[in-house]
Every structure is written in structure tokens, then in C-alpha cells.
């Protein structure tokens, strides 16, 4: 009885040690500064991205879980797509902005993992795909939703189409948002960049943002 108890206690401690090690590894991964401006810096809250660059915060278990779930699904599906002739993690550039398309198979395909039952495309998912479409001059793009809680219909596809005029407008938007992001970084002032406090599609970001208190301490 005593021997089993101590073995369980040792195993429990090892579990915590592994968790701490994984958190440190992920923190080191995030600490590596990316060169240039990325589409992911521009799609959601630009101010938060500036904060993250100039005032990095410690990561926690939620960050680790989100990273593991997102990366795992993406890597598996991207490998399969490559075997079918697609290009996984295709890097594209437009006026200094860098994008990484999950899969490019004549058109950009963006993979999203969700636990929600609602498969209505999220506006920010559409925006990200729209940017990739604009950067590749593609009038068609595909959102692939992996519904992890629906074993009967786990894959849902949504096709997004844009006119040439809409592609041009998206390119202008990328350029404008990129200027705000880079201006905030250069001045080391997140308040130069726009926020999402009053955006009904993105206000949820504030609830989980580690910089909320500092950001909301100042009126905009």
C-alpha cells in the first residue's frame, strides 16, 4: 500500500515537471522574434499584437492547450493535403506583409478547429482568408472547419468569393493596418494601434486579453 502510494506521488510530481517543461519550451518558442509584419498581426486586435511584441507576458496552461490543439490538427491535415498535391504552410508576401497559408491548392485554404456546434464562418476567419486571397490575387478561397465535437459531420467547407474590386480593397486594408502596427512598434506605443473594444465581432478578445487592464485604463 505504502509502495503504491509513493509511486503514485512520484508519478504525480513527474507530471507537473513535464507540464512546467512544456510551458518553458512554448515560452521559448514564442520568445523568438518573428521578422517582418505578419497577417496574424493584422486580423484581430492590432493593439494587442503591439503589446505582445514590446511587453511579452508569461504564458499559462491555457496557452499551452490552445497551441497543442491548434497545431496538432493543422499539422495532420496539412500533411495529408501535401500528399494530394497541395502546398502546406505556403509563405506569401505583399508590400512587406508576410502570410502563411495553411494549404494552397490553386486557391488558398484556411483550416480552423472549433468546439462550437455552429459552423457559421466567423468574420475574423473570413478576413484572414480574404487577406490571403488578396495577396495571391485569387477570387476564390476555402474555409475548412474541423468540428471536433461532431463525429458525424466533422468537416465543413465554406467557399468565399471576391470580385477584383474587393481584392483591391482588401490589399489597401492590409497596407493601412500594417502601417498602424509598425507605427506602434516603432514608437513602442500600443495606443497608436487600433483596438477591438467596440467591435461586436471581436469584443470577446478583450475578455481573455492579458493587456486588458492596461489597455482599458485609457480612453480612446
Alpha plus pi helix count: 8
Tertiary shape:
globular
Number of domains: 2
Tell me the total number of β-strands. Answer: 6
Give the amount of beta strand, in percent. Answer: 15-25%
Q: Briefly note the CATH topology name of the largest domain.
A: Lambda Exonuclease, Chain A
Q: How much helix, percentage-wise, in residues? A: 40-55%
The average pLDDT value, as a whole number, equals: 82
Order of helices and strands: HEHHHEEEHEEHHH
Low-pLDDT residue intervals, each spanning 5 or more residues: none
Q: How many angstroms separate the termini?
A: 63 Å
Backbone CA Rg: 20 Å
Keywords:
alpha/beta; 220 residues; Lambda Exonuclease, Chain A; 6-stranded mixed sheet; 2 domains
What this model shows, in words?
The chain starts with a helix and ends with a helix. With 220 residues, the chain is α/β, with parallel strands linked by helices. The radius of gyration is 20 Å and the shape is globular. It has helices at residues 2-31, 39-42, 46-54, 61-83, 123-136, 164-187, 204-208, 212-216; strands at 37-38, 87-94, 97-104, 108-114, 140-147, 155-161. 52% of the residues lie in helices and 18% in strands. It folds into two domains: 1-32; 33-216, Alpha-Beta Complex (Lambda Exonuclease, Chain A), CATH 3.90.320.
Quick structural gist:
With 220 residues, the chain is of the alpha/beta class. The protein contains 8 helices and 6 strands, in the order H-E-H-H-H-E-E-E-H-E-E-H-H-H. The protein folds into 2 domains: 1-32; 33-216, Lambda Exonuclease, Chain A.
Amino acid at each position: 500500500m505504502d509502495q503504491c502510494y509513493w509511486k503514485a506521488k512520484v508519478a504525480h510530481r513527474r507530471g507537473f515537471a513535464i507540464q512546467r517543461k512544456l510551458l518553458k519550451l512554448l515560452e521559448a518558442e514564442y520568445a523568438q522574434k518573428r521578422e517582418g509584419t505578419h497577417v496574424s498581426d493584422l486580423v484581430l486586435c492590432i493593439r494587442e499584437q503591439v503589446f505582445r511584441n514590446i511587453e511579452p507576458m508569461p504564458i499559462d496552461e491555457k496557452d499551452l492547450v490552445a497551441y497543442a490543439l491548434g497545431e496538432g490538427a493543422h499539422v495532420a491535415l496539412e500533411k495529408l493535403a501535401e500528399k494530394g498535391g497541395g502546398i502546406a504552410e505556403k509563405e506569401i508576401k505583399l508590400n512587406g506583409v508576410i502570410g502563411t497559408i495553411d494549404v494552397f491548392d490553386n486557391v488558398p485554404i484556411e483550416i480552423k478547429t472549433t468546439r462550437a456546434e455552429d459552423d457559421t464562418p466567423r468574420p475574423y476567419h473570413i478576413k484572414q482568408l480574404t487577406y490571403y486571397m488578396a495577396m495571391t490575387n485569387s477570387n476564390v478561397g476555402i474555409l475548412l472547419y474541423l468540428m471536433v465535437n461532431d463525429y458525424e459531420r466533422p468537416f465543413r467547407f465554406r467557399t468565399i468569393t471576391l470580385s477584383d474590386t474587393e481584392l483591391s480593397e482588401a490589399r489597401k486594408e492590409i497596407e493601412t493596418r500594417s502601417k498602424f502596427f509598425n507605427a506602434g512598434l516603432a514608437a513602442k506605443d500600443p495606443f497608436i494601434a487600433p483596438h477591438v473594444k467596440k467591435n461586436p465581432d471581436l469584443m470577446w478578445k478583450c475578455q481573455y486579453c492579458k493587456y486588458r487592464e492596461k489597455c482599458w485604463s485609457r480612453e480612446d
